[in-house]
Amino acid sequence: MGELFARDVLDVRTRQFALLAAFAALGLGDFIKIHGGYVLNAGATEDEPKEVVYLTTIPGGFPRAIQASQAVAELLASRRAD
């Protein structure tokens, strides 16, 4: 894994968006929260991960998009509470 993340073809923000989209399409809520946090730490606005999740409706289907949306909402709520 270290070798994957050491590559410099994509910047950190773009890489984390790609991972967020993949995990959202797969319905992996815990990974959505982890990589959603990374993308926010890399400078994304709160609306950007929401938009990426919204786009997962196409490849992942409506149920997974809802699940991903809930995971992002939980992530944002926990960051606001800190």
In short:
With 82 residues, the chain is mainly alpha-helical. The protein has helices at 2-6, 12-26, 29-41, 47-55, 57-60, 62-81. The chain is built from six helices and no strands.
Strand and helix order: HHHHHH
- The helicity comes to over 70%
Instruction: Please work out how many helical segments DSSP would assign.
Output: 6
Characterize the largest beta sheet: strand count, sense, and whether it forms a barrel. none
Strand percentage lies at under 5%
Cα end-to-end separation: 29 Å
Structural class estimated from helices and strands: mainly alpha
Structural topology:
Layout: H1 2-6, H2 12-26, H3 29-41, H4 47-55, H5 57-60, H6 62-81
Helix pairs in contact: 2-3, 2-4, 2-6, 3-6, 4-6
What would the keywords be for this entry?
about 80 residues; mainly alpha; 6 helices; globular
Report on the structure:
This protein has 82 residues and is mainly α. The protein is built from 6 helices and no strands. The chain has helices spanning 2-6, 12-26, 29-41, 47-55, 57-60, 62-81. Helix 2 (12-26) packs across helix 4 and helix 4 packs antiparallel against helix 6 (62-81). It is globular, with a radius of gyration of 12 Å. The mean pLDDT is 92.
